[in-house]
Amino acid sequence: MIILDNNSQTPLYAQIYEQLKQEIATGILPEGSRLPSTRHLAQTLAVGRNTVEYAYLQLSSEGYVTSRVGSGFTVEKLSGFMYLTNKKDSPQVEQSSAQDKEPSNLYPYHFQYGNLSAQDFPIHMWKKISSKALASLTAEDMTAYCDKMGEMDLRHDLSVYLQESRGVFCSSEQIIICSGFDYALTLLCQLLRNKMTHIAIEEPGYIGAKNIFIDNGFTLLPVPVEKDGLNMEELERSSADIVYVTPSHQFPTGAVTSIQKRLLLLEWAKRKNGFIIEDDYDSELRYHSRPIPSISSVVGNEHVVYIGTFSKALSPSLRMSYMVLPKKLLNLYHNELNMQQTPVSILDQRIIQELMRSGYWANHLRKTCVVYKKKHDVLIRTISETMEGMVKIHGKNAGLHILLESLQGLTEKEMIERAKEHGVLVMPVSIFWSDPTNYSDNMVLLGFGNISEHDIIQGIKALSLAWKI
C-alpha cells in the first residue's frame, strides 16, 4: 500500500517510486506482476497522472519494471540483493579525455567533449568561497601536512553527500581525496596489482582507464557492452577478477546498467572474491529522470570501489576526485600505501568543503542541470527535426555527450570529413574500441558542454546538409 505524505519535502513522484521499489526489492511485488495503470493509481492516490508516470519511468530506467505495449508495466526478475531504501535499517553516516583534440577554433561549430561552458561557471561565487576558505587557514594549517587521505572535515561532508545523492553509505575513513580520476585509478592499481592481474573492461570504453591499467601491468579483457550494460555471460567466461564499469551512463555508448545486471555484477564479485571499480563520472547530470542509484548503494557492496569526480559538474581544471574504498581494502591501503600523501592542496580542499557546507554546491548542481538539460533538449530536438531517417541517437537523457550512428552507410571518417567541410567538428568513436573489428565504423561523438544553444542548432543544421546523400 502506498502512503503519501503531502507535507514531506520529498516530491510525490519520488515517494511513489521509493515505495514501489521497496516492494519489488523485498518480493511484495514478485516477478511478472503488473503495476496498476497510471490512470488508476493516480485516481487512487489523488495525484496527477504525470506524477505516477514519472515514478514508473524512473523504475523502468533502472530495470525494476518493463513497459510493454498493451500490458502496462511488469515487474522484472531480481536476485537476492536489495537496495538500502529504509533509512531505519541503514548504517549511519559517521558524524565527525584521452583523445587527440583538433583546435576547435578552426571550426565555427565544435562538438568537442570535455570542456564545460565558461559563461555558465559561477566565477563570482567561486571567488567568494575561495576568499572565505583562504581566510580560514591558520599558520598551523600551512606548516603541517594534511591528513594523507585528505581533510577529515571534507571527507565527512562527502560521506553525507554520497549517502543523500547516490545512496552510498560509507564512513569518512573510507574516502580518499584524489587529484583527478587518473590519480585515483593509479592509486587503486598500485593497491591491487600484486594481488590480481586480469581486469575486465567495457568494450567500447574509456581509453584513459585502459591506458592506466596497461601502465600498471594488468591484462585487459574487453567485454561487450549491451543496451543494459556488460554482457554478463562474457564476463563469466573471462578470467577477470576485477571489472571496471561506468554503469550509470556508460562511456561512450550512454547505456544504463539495469538493476538485474548490477545485482549479477555483485554476485560475480562476491563469488570471485574480486572487485568492481565503479566510475560514477557524471551521475549528477541526468535530465528526464532521477539519477540512477550507484552499484555501491546495494547491500553487499563490500566488493565495490567507488570513484567520483568534480570535473563534469564543476571544473575539469580543479583536478579533484574522490575514491571510496570498501572496508576490506582499508587495511591493505594503510599497510602498503601508508607513505602516500594527498596531492590536493589544503586550500582546494577547504574551498570544496565550504561549497558543500554553505549550500552552494547543491544550488550549483541544480543550476548546472538546468543549463545542460536545455542544451541537451535543443540538441535532441534539432537532430530529430533535421535528420530524421539519417541518424540514430545513442546515450541521450544524461551526461554531456551523445553518439550519432549513420543510417545512410556513411563511415566514421566520411562523417567527420564531411562535417569539417561544413564547419563542424565532431569526434571519432573508433578510439574507444580495444578491437576495432567489433566496431560498426559508422558513428561519431558529439559533446555539448561547451557550445551555445544557438550554435547547437546551427551546427546540427550544417551536419544535416553535410551528411545528406
TrEMBL record:
UniProt xrefs under SMART domains: HTH_GNTR
Annotated PROSITE patterns: HTH_GNTR (PS50949)
Keywords: DNA-binding, Pyridoxal phosphate, Transcription, Transcription regulation
Protein name: GntR family transcriptional regulator
InterPro entries on file: Aminotransferase_I/II_large, HTH_trans_reg/aminotransferase, PyrdxlP-dep_Trfase, PyrdxlP-dep_Trfase_major, Tscrpt_reg_HTH_GntR, WH-like_DNA-bd_sf, WH_DNA-bd_sf
TM region positions: none
One Pfam match: GntR
UniProt organism field: Lacrimispora algidixylanolytica
Superkingdom as given in the UniProt entry: Bacteria
UniProt keyword Transcription regulation, yes or no: yes
GO terms assigned for molecular function: DNA binding; DNA-binding transcription factor activity; pyridoxal phosphate binding
Family from the record: In the C-terminal section; belongs to the class-I pyridoxal-phosphate-dependent aminotransferase family.
Residue ranges constituting the HTH gntR-type domain according to the UniProt record: 10-78
SUPFAM superfamilies in alphabetical order: PLP-dependent transferases (SSF53383), Winged helix' DNA-binding domain (SSF46785)
